Amino acid sequence: LKSKRHSGVIQIGAMSDTYNPFEKKYEVTREALKLIDKYGFGIAIATKSDLILRDIDILKNINTHSPVIVKFSITCGDDNLSKVIEPNVCVSSKRFEGIKKLRDAGIYTGVLMMPLLPFINDTKDNIDKIINQAYKSMANFIYPMFGVTLRANQRFYYYTKLRENFPNLVSKYQN
Prior knowledge:
By secondary structure, the chain is an alpha/beta fold. It has one domain: pyruvate-formate lyase- activating enzyme, CATH 3.80.30. The protein is 44% helix and 17% strand. It has helices at 21-26, 28-38, 56-63, 79-85, 92-104, 124-136, 152-165, 170-174; strands at residues 9-12, 42-47, 68-73, 108-116, 142-146. It has a 5-stranded parallel β-sheet, with helices on one face. α2 runs parallel beside α3. It is globular.
């Protein structure tokens, strides 16, 4: 970063959550944020983890010189459904609390409403719950993405989980 002539905004977490379970122990993202701050860059972070709250101090500092945007991926307005669809991340209510705390710290923060899975969480009730909770959390934006691509490797995993959790939907997906 120090060799760059111009600063910009660095995006992290788009393909793999940078606040994964190892981050709590190893603090790789926290150290990266310190370098991003030191060299005058901005940051755009996509996450499903409230662990990002640990780094509010650095995000606030970056925000004094460069853009900061935090995007929480939220698929469910209900924690019980969230636990089924996203078993290895914090529940939606914790993410909405994270939005509120980041907004209170002056950080531009919102919702990536994705993925919305056909017949599972793409219902009017679920979408209304997400929108209402985003409003209550003072989210700056909601960016929705409807549907799912089911590329080759994703398809096998998805159908396996579909059979485990929603067996009555397998034929709908196949059709």
